[in-house]
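User: Can you recover a sequence for this backbone? Please restate the input before giving your answer.

Assistant: Of course. Working from this structure:
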């Protein structure tokens, strides 16, 4: 049975980060998928892939989507160059343990603030002074970002007058800002896939709020200055020819070289705590996902779901 084989799939932390495809037909080939383009057929071992980004001009068959879902590969429909995000499929997890842990921390003001401080502390080499207010921490982070832009601009010989771009006039955006947008979009996609695969919610952000991808932005900010931003400056320094494509390739190589997926999963668990023994289904696929979950009780325990309790005799107190 196929469900037995699902448990041999690599965990999200050990997978390849992402692939982006445009102007192609995607179909199933054996137990994997393949890209059909004017250059020929390219097989893709999707069982080892975290995220497949489908750009403009892509048609994908039902069989290919079924194969990707069985392999736990997140599918995202994106704009040209993977810059805009439109929609996504689902990840591998069938457990809500990590989601409930995240929601509990998000809803508790003290725990929420603790997570915020932890996420900021991960960006600095030194530990933050406990007396610093959130506004002071944000100011400190702003200085770090500006200093990083200035340093990379000087090292790569790429002039940068500020972080700005015209969303509705992409061609008028200067090369370094365009490269930064492409690189950050790739990073968002991989972080989104890892968050979903690990069983967390991309919407319940702690630093960012009010968007369906708020937590994606939170997590991506942990790695921008070390991975996507340097990759963007290096690609921009090499010229404007095929800039968007070279940025994506640079990011893909850096994600692999620096072990980004392992870091994301590890950092998520360091924020919310490791799951209790027996609860760690976040990187796996259950034997039968169709089985009903438990039913909530006020005492914190659960009783079995899928039971017709109305057929039992009602016991009077």
């Amino acid at each position: 049975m196929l469900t037995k084989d699902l448990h041999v799939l690599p965990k999200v932390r050990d997978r390849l980060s992402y692939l982006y495809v445009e102007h192609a037909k995607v179909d199933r080939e054996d137990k994997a998928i393949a890209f059909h383009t004017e250059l020929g057929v390219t097989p893709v071992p999707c069982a080892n892939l975290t995220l497949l980004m489908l750009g403009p001009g892509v048609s994908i068959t039902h069989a290919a989507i079924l194969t990707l879902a069985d392999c736990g590969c997140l599918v995202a429909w994106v704009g040209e160059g993977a810059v805009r995000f439109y929609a996504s499929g689902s990840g591998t997890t069938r457990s809500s343990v990590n989601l409930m842990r995240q929601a509990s921390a998000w809803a508790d003001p003290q725990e929420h603030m603790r997570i915020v401080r932890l996420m900021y502390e991960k960006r600095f080499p030194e530990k933050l002074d406990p007396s610093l207010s959130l506004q002071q921490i944000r100011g400190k982070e702003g200085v770090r970002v500006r200093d990083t832009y200035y340093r990379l601009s000087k090292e790569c010989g790429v002039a940068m007058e500020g972080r700005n771009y015209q969303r509705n006039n992409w061609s008028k955006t200067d090369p370094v800002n365009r490269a930064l947008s492409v690189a950050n979009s790739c990073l968002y996609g991989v972080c989104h896939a890892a968050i979903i695969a690990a069983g967390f919610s991309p919407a319940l952000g702690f630093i960012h709020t009010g968007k369906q991808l708020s937590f994606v932005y939170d997590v991506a900010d942990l790695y921008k200055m070390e991975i996507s931003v340097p990759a963007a400056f290096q690609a921009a320094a090499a010229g404007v020819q095929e800039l968007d494509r070279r940025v994506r390739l640079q990011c893909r190589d850096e994600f692999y070289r620096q072990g980004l997926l392992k870091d994301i999963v590890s950092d998520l668990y360091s924020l919310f705590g490791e799951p209790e023994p027996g609860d760690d289904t976040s990187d796996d696929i259950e034997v039968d996902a169709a089985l009903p979950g438990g039913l909530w009780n006020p005492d914190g325990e659960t009783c079995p779901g899928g039971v017709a309790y109305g057929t039992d005799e009602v016991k009077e107190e």
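That completes the design. The chain has a mean pLDDT of 82.
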